[in-house]
Here is the input.
Amino acid sequence: MNEEKISYHFYSRPKIVRTQPRFYRTLSAWLIALVIFRPWILSAQYIPLASGQSKFLGCATSGYISSYLSKYFNQVTPGNDGKWGSVENIRGQYSWTNLDNIYNYAMGTTRNLLYKHHCLLWGQQQPGWISSLDSASQREEIEEWIQAVGARYPKMTQVDVVNEPMMAPPDGQAGRANYKNALGGDGITGWDWVITAFELARQYCDSSVQLLLNEYNILHDNSRTDTYLDLINLLKERDLIDGIGIQGHYFEFRSDISVTSGTYIYDVNTIKYNLNRLVATGLPVYITEFDIDEPIDADQLAQYKIYFPIFWGNPGVKGITLWGYIESDVWYSHPNTFLLWDNGEERPAMEWLRTYILSPQPPVLISPMAPQTASLDPVLLWHSTETADSFHIQLAKASSFNPAALLIDTVIVDTVLQVDSLQAETIYYWRVAASNEHGASLFSTIAAFRTKAVNAMIGQSEELPQDYRLLQNYPNPFNATTVIVFSLPDENFVNLQVFDLLGHQVRTLVNQKMSAGERTIIFNTAGLNSGIYFYKIRAGNFEQMKKMILIK
Here is the structure.
């Protein structure tokens, strides 16, 4: 990937083919709209799209900062101005002006944007003079550069310590810088130079700054993901890495729609699989340079709908940065990535993006799920999702959820649903979608379970519990509703109560004789405050207590 990858510039508007003609209002209509609707526009349309959510939506920018930036985004990355080659083109002479503008803009008290520095080291764009130095001098200059960035921008949230270590290492090849050996070369680990770079970043950056690795062309290739994971784990073992960067450019997924030769489309399932492998490390994953470079509005929109949800909908992805969001501030080689025209008019993909981000994500199902079997009166349980205020539940005898197979199709505000009178030894399928005032999510992944067999003679499950048991409530911690399960090997009088931290009884859930079997109780905490509670069961000589945590 060459240097122009990060070159932002001003240029005449490219030819963009719209699916609908632009709508021009008359002057009087504009004046009326401004007077009547301006307060609503500023309060609704220009709140950063991911405000209040657990992940950010950011953008890259140059020293030119559009007034629309903070109206859509709550994170910012300097596209070209933060690279060593841009700041210290002449040895010993630092040009911080453009970078200061971006950093100070992000730190503004009315904006308070997350700022990620991009980047400390990248073999493809370093000062030209670095390659003429001996290894000892190179090491000295590298350390001086990292120290200068850490001291000048102490409140940065994140920093790309090494950019493209696999695809563009500083090994002197293909026009790249040659300081790899100055940092230890491959060494014993195969990645000693990267480890050294992170050690220097950890030394000179504030302890609050998250250190990131950044790379492209990873997710569509299992072997490349293997190599990336090897490097990540080396850094993780040394407590040097705080997050994983995946660039997420359009060309990492497929070729442009309009091209007629060299076309390719990488498998979406492979992309999802490798993304989950990175998430499984336990480190937060960031999509650092996402873009869709399509000149036709309808094409860009269609591709956004395919690829953006793969990342935003993954709980392990904690932020996405768009690489070029406004017409005059984009990557030279990919000029159609923007979502806003310079006058603030939105392309359809931005209109869709707003609704998508403000709408909740699909819930994560908890229970019942294969391979477990369920009673004939199971409790369907799922995790809530940010900003959701209601849930659409479907239960069917076929995974297609066609009308003939659909048994339950309802909307509730809780995250648990008691189902009654299912057939024995039958496979059922269920799924849940979330909704709020802005729209509905897609349905969750489909879960399946099989109901237990029934002894027709006595009307009970064939496999009765052998012992008294009180299981841990789930979910735990929980919000509003949780499920408590206990087992009775024989008929007995059952008392199940809930106590607060001081031992005061706050709820009686069961106080009656119950037949043998596994019993499920839904505990709705309406009227209770957040905190630690205990639930205690008494059944004959059996007595047990467990702790649960309510978070509202």
About this structure: The longest helix spans residues 27-45.
